[in-house]
Design goal:
The structure is a single chain. The chain is an alpha+beta fold and about 250 residues long. It is globular, with a radius of gyration of 17 Å. The chain binds biotinyl-5-AMP. Biotinyl-5-AMP binds next to α1, β3, β6 and β7.
Length: about 250
């Protein structure tokens, strides 16, 4: 690869690879540095939630990125990482994975991968981005409290080598990262993102700024935002917030 994973920091156990990556980034780690751990004791989800990261079973990794883009473009970087992980999972396992906008990866109606992006920025400039990716690979089962979770092993009925998925992802993301830095636009990824996105043409629940409503997911726009139509036929553009898709078990 040219940038992503040229430098890899591996740990047997850390609190969170995102926290470790942020420390390294503050100390000037090079663009594309990957932090990978076999186990996280305090894996983090979004909005202060926790992410179960037991040893030997999953991919818990964070990429440190220092692209020359505006803070408003960071969400595209996350979309692209999700897309490349979705493609890597499909290539290595043959399973029918798809993306729940913006960047959860779903198989059937269950979540196999989540992404947590954190950044340090000024108004017009990014200091660094940390894209943290968690994939349940060989997890045998989940607690009832996260019944919406699944693993590649549960879905494919066999074990997978974590390093093969990491390798596939890193190669893809390296190419995407170079392209994004050159074009500074999500446009080259839009069609393929839509092809891999299960959110489109479905009823969704939008939770944003304390507001919650049901809408219909119509399209993904050139900047990666989600266009929805409310029950009163009003169009809204969703840039951040939580989107649940109506699935087999209600909304996931
Ligand atoms: C996410 O949050 O989906 C982002 C997860 C990011 C994890 C990676 S691992 C490497 C890096 N280092 C970190 O510390 N984090 C990143 P969110 O959408 O908020 O989902 C969190 C929710 O998913 C929790 O509240 C649980 O209900 C559920 N959950 C927890 N562990 C899970 C798991 N292993 N698989 C699926 N769902 C899980």
């Amino acid at each position: 690869t040219k940038v992503i994973g040229k430098h890899i920091e591996y740990y047997d156990e850390v609190d969170s690879t995102n926290n470790e990556a942020k420390k390294l980034a503050r100390n000037g780690a090079e663009d594309g540095t990957l932090v990978i751990a076999n186990c996280q004791t305090k894996g983090k989800g979004r909005l202060g939630r926790s992410w179960l990261s037991p040893k030997d079973t999953g991919i818990w990794m964070s990429a440190i990125l220092t692209p020359n883009i505006m803070p408003s473009q960071v969400s595209c970087m996350t979309l692209i990482a999700g897309l490349d992980m979705c493609k890597a999972i499909k290539k290595i396992t043959g399973l029918n994975a798809s993306i729940k906008w913006p960047n959860d990866i779903i198989i059937g109606s269950k979540k196999v991968c989540g992404i947590l992006t954190e950044m340090s920025a000024e108004m017009q400039r990014i200091n660094y981005i940390v894209v943290g990716i968690g994939v349940n690979v060989n997890t045998a089962g989940f607690d009832k409290s996260i019944s919406h979770a699944t693993s590649l092993m549960i879905e494919g009925q066999k074990k997978y080598e974590r390093k093969m998925i990491i390798k596939e992802f890193v190669e893809k993301f390296d190419r995407s990262y170079t392209l994004y830095n050159k074009e500074c636009s999500f446009a080259p990824f839009l069609d393929i993102y839509k092809e891999n996105c299960m959110t489109l043409n479905k009823e969704v629940k939008i939770i944003t700024n304390g507001d919650e409503y049901i809408a219909y997911a119509k399209d993904i726009l050139a900047d990666g935002s989600l266009l929805v139509e409310t029950k009163t036929k009003e169009e809204k553009v969703i840039v951040a917030g939580e989107v649940s898709v109506r699935g087999i078990q209600g909304y996931i």
